[in-house]
Amino acid sequence: MDYGDKLFWLSVLIQRRYAQICAEYDLTSLQATLLCAIKDEPRRMAYLAASLGMTKNALSQLVDRTERRHLVSRASSEQDRRVIMLSVTPAGKVLAEAVFAETTKRLPDIAENLGADDRRDLERLATAVVDASGVSAATSS
């Protein structure tokens, strides 16, 4: 296997673990990611679509499903009524915090068979990749 193959399978491992955690909270991976992206502050729908790599239509459908569960709410921006802001409800906030905490606690288990030095290297490299991508700034406050 080459480097691309390894990254593919690493992605599969991460996605599978994340999906397992989300299922324990009766959420899809996309619902959990959405909740975690807005858990600390409301975000513009257009910003979320771009940050999460979704079309506006796909995000709207995801929000509709999540809103029916009373986990998020939409409101027009006070500054510009054309802008739709998305925020978590109190129930959504509790769920987002729980999923986020459980994920950050259990996701590192995928590297449990590595030695301490390799785990530190993986942490350093993962941090560098995420920081360079800008994704953490896009979904955290």
Structural features, described:
This protein is mainly alpha-helical. 66% of the residues lie in helices and 9% in strands. The chain is built from seven helices and three strands; from the N terminus they run ααβααββααα. It has helices at 3-24, 29-38, 45-52, 56-68, 90-106, 116-133, 135-139; strands at residues 43-44, 72-76, 84-88. A three-stranded antiparallel sheet has the order 1-3-2. A hairpin with a 7-residue loop joins strand 2 and strand 3. Helix 2 crosses helix 5 and helix 3 (45-52) packs across helix 4. It is elongated, with a radius of gyration of 17 Å. The N and C termini lie far apart (38 Å). The mean pLDDT is 91.
Short description, anyone?
It comes from Streptomyces olivaceus. Pfam families: MarR_2 (PF12802). This protein is mainly alpha-helical and 141 residues long.
